[in-house]
Design goal:
- The protein is about 10% helix and about 40% strand.
- It contains 2 helices and 13 strands; from the N terminus they run βββββαβββββββαβ.
- The strands form 3 sheets. Strands 2, 3, 4, 5, 8, 9 and 10 form a 7-stranded antiparallel sheet that branches.
- The protein is globular.
Length: about 200
């Protein structure tokens, strides 16, 4: 017989209800997304790129998975240190402007205010482009790189989604990558609930 055999059972704990996250704030919990991949470059220059690796498509919106990279050319050690410092100040998007244009012409911008910053945000019309983490960066003597994810809500019902970017620090003017509507629609059909009702 063990000393601990007589430990009393803890009293039952009441179950707490699962908080409900608004659709605009992030992906639905309990849902496996469909995926559109690979996609391509949103911006591409001689020494810097921004690429959309994939789009995870849920029933209500989508996660955009972006990567960026800068390679060293003829920068002095001091200039390269400044590039790396900027990369780590904003590891998700070091001076990169990111946005999305829906097929109906509406726009969403990353890094702007989100509905939760205001009173009465229960009634959000959208579209909304919310930083969804995943940001990280690394830098060495020859290149600096990072990644970032954004939640876009709502998912366009049909038509082409455009991802728009501009990177002034790297001399990359505004450019657009188009995500075909048929690929988004197929991925949306592939999204599955963890526990179907």
């Amino acid at each position: 017989m063990s000393f601990f055999d007589d430990l009393p059972e803890p009293p039952p704990r009441p179950r707490q209800p699962q908080p409900v996250r608004p659709e605009w704030a992030g992906p639905p919990s309990g849902e496996l997304p469909g995926v559109v991949s690979p996609l391509g470059f949103v911006l591409r220059g001689p020494n810097a790129v921004v690429a959309l690796k994939m789009v995870e498509v849920f029933s209500t919106g989508c996660l955009l998975d972006l990567v960026w990279c800068v390679r060293r050319s003829d920068e002095s050690d001091q200039e390269w240190r400044e590039v790396m410092e900027r990369s780590f100040q904003e590891p998700g998007r070091p001076g990169i402007l990111i946005g999305a244009r829906l097929p109906d012409g509406r726009k969403a911008f990353a890094g702007t205010t989100t509905p939760s910053m205001f009173e009465g945000s229960e009634e959000v019309a959208g579209p909304v482009l919310v930083d969804w983490g995943g940001a990280g960066g690394s830098a060495g003597d020859q290149q600096a790189e990072g990644s970032v994810r954004y939640w876009l809500w709502p998912l366009p019902a049909e038509g082409e989604l455009q991802i728009v970017a501009k990177w002034d620090d790297q001399g990359l003017p505004e450019s657009t990558l188009k995500v075909p509507g048929d690929r988004l629609a197929t991925a949306r059909e592939e999204a599955r609930e963890y526990w179907p009702v």
